[in-house]
Structures are given as structure tokens and as C-alpha cells.
Specification:
By secondary structure, this protein is an alpha/beta fold. Helices cover about 45% and strands about 20% of the residues. The termini are far apart.
Length: about 350
């Protein structure tokens, strides 16, 4: 073979290999079996939303032997970089974004890496922005679960005043607040609900001192129960409940241990189960993109009723709560959109 032709073919082969490799890096390898996850603001250790997601990963690892890698983006400003870092790794095939704040970033990254699979918990649905074919939007009917704990709070309250503490003032957290108020007023139309928000940015989910300050004010103004949907900021709500010897309602996970004896119940979102199920479907090659919604009918949301709070939630209260649950499931009660 002519020496010049040999070197030309060698160079051509190298160029072909390099282009293919660069294309793989951009699009993401489709052979990855590992799972990546980026936490929401507050990170792991919030004893709520993020910890629930991590619990789901651990369960999947224990049952399937599937490995995972997590990133805490700190204040959340580098979400896109964290998602892109995980997506660029050949051994990672599925990437989670935990929280509605990820919506725009994970949509962009999913389009950039069409050979990867993505999932976003609490994805904000926008009819004008189509969901990529490799992305699953996981959402919950938080208003249904909040309606139930609002009804329980109204039945339990002696003062006729209850409180709500939200993290970031946003459409998602407003769903919690709206459901809670509607549930309470379903039981007692005259009940007073005191509401407050920690902030208007993601920082609102990681400020326990501000959460405590708001809850203290609500207790001092007569509320005997405060429900929070504020991530790590909720730790301050439990501290306020203990100080005033009044009651709090937890969120996402069973938060009884944050203030034993002072937690009336918790509105649990089965984020752990949803993460686990999504990993299972990915491992079994049954991953399907689109929107998945979880509510009372499939136990995606629920309230805690066990030996820790049976002395507080009487049989009568629990029976009424179960009646309300069935009416919500059957559509006999509909939580207003606004």
C-alpha cells in the first residue's frame, strides 16, 4: 500500500473515532446502569423531601444491587452543572432532579442528552413546553393529602386557630396551603388559618430560624397546631411546638421523631417509593416518559396514623378522616384550584 494512502486512511479512522466519541459525550451513553441524583435546596439531611428521595435510592440499591451517585448543589444555583456532570458520565443511565425548581434545567439537559433517561420529582407541567421523550415528570396531589391533615387539625383544635408555614412562596407550596385551608374549613367553616412563608426563593427551604420565628408568632396568636411544608426550615417549626407545648404537622416523611409527643401527624408524600419504582422500571427496561401523578387513590400521599399518635387522633377523628379520604378519591370532594 502506498505510504501516503496508509497515513490518510489512518487519519480518517482517527477522525471518525474522535467524532463518534465526542458525539457519545454530548448525547450520553445509552448503556449506563448506574443512577444519578441531584438534591433539592436543603440537601440531604433535611429530614424531609431530600431524605425521602435518598431513602428510595437506598432501597433500590439494596434490592437490585444498582449503584448510584448523588450531588448536593448547595444553594441550588448550579443545578444545571450538576445534572450535566452526571449525564456526561458513561456509566450513569438515569438522572433524577429532586424538586420543581429543576424543571427548566432538567428539560434542557434531557434534550442535550437524548440517550439518557431523566426523572424530575414535582416537575412543573407547562402545556406550552413539551416534555422530552426521555424525561418522566413525577407529580403528586399534595392538595389532597393536605386537605386530609387540615380536616384532622380542625377536628383536633381547641382554639379554633391553626397555622401554616411554607418554605418558598410558589405555586407548588400554595397547593399544600390551599388543601390545608380547604380541609380545615370543610370541618369548621369559621376556623382561622394563619399563614406565613419563609421566603420567595429556594432559600426558604433551608432557614430553620425563620421557620421557628413564623411558627412562634402563630402559636402566640392562638394557633394550637401548625402544619409546615418548608423542608429543612420545618425543623424550626418543631422547635417552636416543643417550646410552646403545642402541636405541629410534619410533611413528606413521618416526622414524629422531630418532636415526640408534639407531632399530631405528618402528610407523607411517597417520594421514596416513587424514586424506587422509577429505578426499578429503568433497570427492567420499562422506563416510560411522560407524566405520572400520584394521589390518595394509590397512596402517593397519605397521613400518618400509628401507635405514636393514636392517643391524639381519636377513633372518631380517624373515622371521619377515612370518610373524607373516600370522598376525595371518588371526586365527591374536589379541592379548588385557587
Amino acid at each position: 500500500m502506498n505510504k501516503n494512502i496508509f497515513f490518510f486512511l489512518l487519519a480518517l479512522s482517527f477522525m471518525f473515532f474522535s467524532c463518534g466519541k465526542n458525539n457519545d459525550i454530548k448525547n450520553g451513553s445509552s448503556t449506563g446502569t448506574k443512577v444519578g441524583l441531584v438534591f433539592d435546596v436543603g440537601g440531604r439531611g433535611d429530614k424531609s423531601f431530600n431524605d425521602a428521595a435518598y431513602k428510595g435510592l437506598e432501597k433500590a440499591k439494596n434490592e437490585f444491587g444498582i449503584d448510584f451517585e448523588v450531588i448536593d448543589p448547595g444553594d441550588g444555583s448550579d443545578r444545571e452543572a450538576a445534572l450535566r456532570k452526571l449525564a456526561a458520565k458513561p456509566d450513569i443511565g438515569l438522572i433524577f432532579g429532586i424538586g420543581f425548581i429543576f424543571t427548566d434545567d432538567i428539560t434542557k439537559i434531557a434534550n442535550d442528552f437524548p440517550n439518557k433517561k431523566f426523572a424530575c420529582v414535582d416537575y412543573s407541567i407547562n402545556p406550552d413546553n413539551p416534555i422530552p421523550a426521555n424525561l418522566i415528570a413525577l407529580e403528586f396531589k399534595e392538595d389532597e393529602g393536605s386537605f386530609l391533615v387540615g380536616a384532622i387539625a380542625a377536628m383536633f383544635s381547641k382554639s379554633g386557630k391553626i397555622g401554616f408555614v411554607g418554605g418558598m412562596e410558589s405555586s407548588l407550596i400554595k397547593k399544600f396551603e390551599r388543601g390545608f385551608i380547604e380541609g380545615a374549613k370543610y370541618i369548621n367553616p369559621d376556623i382561622k388559618v394563619l399563614s406565613g412563608y419563609v421566603g420567595v426563593t429556594g432559600e426558604g427551604f433551608k432557614n430553620p430560624s425563620k421557620g421557628k420565628e413564623i411558627a412562634l408568632t402563630q402559636y402566640q396568636n392562638g394557633a394550637d397546631i401548625v402544619y409546615h411544608a418548608s423542608g429543612l426550615s420545618g425543623i424550626g417549626v418543631f422547635e417552636a411546638a416543643k417550646e410552646h407545648k403545642k402541636y405541629a404537622i410534619g410533611v413528606d416523611l413521618d416526622q414524629y421523631n422531630e418532636a415526640p409527643g408534639f407531632v399530631l401527624t405528618s402528610m407523607v408524600k411517597k417520594v421514596d417509593e416513587i424514586v424506587y419504582i422509577t429505578v426499578k422500571e429503568f433497570k427492567e427496561n420499562n422506563f416510560k416518559s411522560g407524566i405520572k401523578t400520584f394521589g390518595l387513590s394509590d397512596k402517593g400521599v397519605d397521613f400518618v396514623y400509628d401507635n405514636n399518635n393514636k392517643s391524639l387522633i381519636t377513633d372518631e377523628i380517624n373515622k371521619k378522616a377515612e370518610e373524607i379520604r373516600q370522598k376525595l378519591i371518588k371526586g365527591e370532594i374536589v379541592v379548588p384550584a385557587n
